[in-house]
Amino acid sequence: MATNNLFLDIEGASSLICSFSYVSLAMNSTRNLVAAARTVAGRRIAATRPRRQFSKYWKPATLPASQTETKQNGIRSFHGQVQLRSGATEASNPAMAFPCLDALESKSATLEARSLSSGPEPSYTSGVTLKYYCKEPLLLDWGGVLPEFDIAYESWGELNADKSNVILLHTGLSASSHAHSTESNPKSGWWEKFIGPGGCLDTNKYHVICTNVIGGCYGSTGPSSIDPADGQRYATRFPILTMEDMVRAQFRLLDGLGIKKLYASVGASMGGMQSLAAGVLFPERVGRIASISGCARSHPYSIAMRHTQRQVLMMDPKWNRGFYYDSIPPHAGMKLAREIATVTYRSGPEWEQRFGRRRADPSKQPALCPDFLIETYLDHAGEKFCLEYDANSLLYVSKAMDLFDLGAKNQAASSTRRAAHTHRLETGQAEDREAAMCSLTLPDSPYEEQPESEAPADLNAPVERSSGPPQDLVLGLKGLRDHPALIMGVESDILFPAWQQREIAETLRKAGNKSVTHVELGEDLSLFGHDSFLLDLEHIGGNLRQFLG
Ligand SMILES: N[C@@H](CCO)C(=O)O
Questions:
Q1: Catalytic annotation present for 530
Q2: How far is the CA of 89 from the centre of ligand 1 (A)?
Q3: What ranges do the domains of the chain cover?
Q4: End-to-end C-alpha distance for the chain, whole angstroms
Q5: How much distance in Å is there from the Cα of 544 to the middle of ligand 1?
Q6: pLDDT at 53
Q7: Which of 207, 331, 483, 530 is catalytic?
Q8: What's the mean per-residue pLDDT of the chain?
Q9: How far apart are CA 79 and CA 72, in angstroms?
Q10: AB hydrolase-1 domain location, by residue (predicted)?
Q11: CB within 6 Å of ligand 1 — which residues?
Q12: Per-residue pLDDT reduced to its tens digit, 323-353
């Protein structure tokens, strides 16, 4: 039996009205309804009254006064109300209602019923796309292999005769290839206003291609795909990915389409990382680069923010170490992860203007569930996303972002690893499964705080600016010295802060690039933080249009 939507109302000292509804495939007898109500109520008040006390003291005083049954998609839901009488002394204060938790349980119940009646059915899909199937294996940077893979992609604008007008558009973390509406999928895309005839990505001139990244869940091969080796979903048997792996897969698509060189590689956020990586990996095949709100390597704060998202998700028991595809997806963990992510995507100043300190309903008592408008906004953002995107994709793609580092040392280490793994594949040596498994162990002793230096630090002292970008990055980006580059950032971005785009621009210049355009949008122009790239057509779009010519 599953239960949901419980509202508790303490009436006086001795009775409790328990409204309940639950979905069930079988249960409908009056006796069971009462039992359901008691179970539900007992669970809710367990925090203030241990359950055994509950069963001892709270007895049904009435049978359900009314009960209704609804049926949707073959799922039967029962709703009713029962009065329970208490024989216990009252606590000093009434127990609090938690509608936000009830809603979560309700969602679990609905999903459970759905999976029982119709089998698992992932809701993350963006509609019709083109698909490129690559039957050649893809060796990944950390030694994993995809024996074959699909790339979902969409395109807009005519491809010219010599295929020289292609713009490869890279997505942010959660976007699909659907950047703009198409004939087969007329829904608005995530850059609907940026792409089109005469637009920033002008489809009168350019053939724009956007792909879903490998590791994703919108048609490209990812953890929810079937492993051809055993016919089961990869789940967390999917190998660790890097940005460079995603870009290599995209270039396989370009090979398949006969496109030798891009007019431009364009992307924002994670796509801003990839637009640089494309140039670094395939300098001869990329004409120009636009990297918006991106970086040349992830910094610890952004890794930390993604770490917290992954942790809340992995702590959801429904995540089940990644093997949830036959069951209920970890929607609660996903919801929380998206709430944290949303905090990093927008900006304090925007929320100051938009929500201030307003509460959703100031006439009500403050609650521990979402209450301030900003809380209800985050709750909504989490709710919207939690079943749209595959949880394992979030883990893999976000980890790939953490691993991003275009510094020369990291590139060299990656090349060495790739050479060893290529040799293994070419000589047909079996993989050493032990070595390929994650052998990370927790440290024997917890992280220890380092002792403070003797002299007290002056926390208000101005931050010393280093004399220039790190040499490791300069060496790492030296292959881009001849590529015209647009590097754009937004002052209110806390996830990819503006200093990271300054760093890219300075690094490119130091590497000898004389065609770097660096634009930083101040708070007076763009208040939307990291997500400005999705919203600010005038400034983000305008500068991009100018750069592309
Ligand atoms: N809000 C964007 C930003 C991260 O790229 C996304 O979810 O994709």
A1: yes
A2: 52
A3: 130-299+406-429+467-548, 302-403
A4: 62
A5: 19
A6: 44
A7: 530
A8: 86
A9: 14
A10: 165-506
A11: 172-175, 269-270, 345, 530-531
A12: 999 999 999 999 999 999 999 999 988 999 9
Amino acid at 431: E
What single DSSP character describes residue 530?
G
Counting ligand 1 atoms within 8 A of each CB, the residue from 174, 342, 378, 535 with the most, and so the one to mutate, is 174
Distance of CA 369 to the CA centre of its chain: 23
**In the CATH scheme, what is the code of domain 130-299+406-429+467-548?**
3.40.50.1820
What is the three-class DSSP state of 17? strand
3-class secondary-structure state, position 22 = strand
- What are the DSSP calls for 242-296, one per residue? -HHHHHHHHHHHHHHHT---EEEEEEETHHHHHHHHHHHH-GGGEEEEEEES--S
Q: What distance in Å separates the CA atoms of residue 18 and residue 6, rounded to the nearest whole number?
A: 7
Residue identifier of the C-alpha nearest atom 7 of ligand 1: 174
The candidate with the shortest Cα–Cα distance to 216, out of 186, 249, 256, is 249
Q: Which two tokens stand for residue 522?
A: 């101040």
Architecture (CATH level 2) of domain 302-403: Orthogonal Bundle (1.10)
Angle, helices 373-385 vs 331-345, to 10°: value is 120
CA distances from 492 to 381, 463, 497 (A): 20, 19, 8
Query: How many angstroms does the Cα of residue 131 sit away from the middle of ligand 1?
Result: 23
pLDDT at 485 over 50: yes
> What is the per-residue burial (b if ≥16 Cβ within 10 Å, else e) of 80-113?
bbbbbebeeeeeeeeeebbebebbbbbbbbbbeb
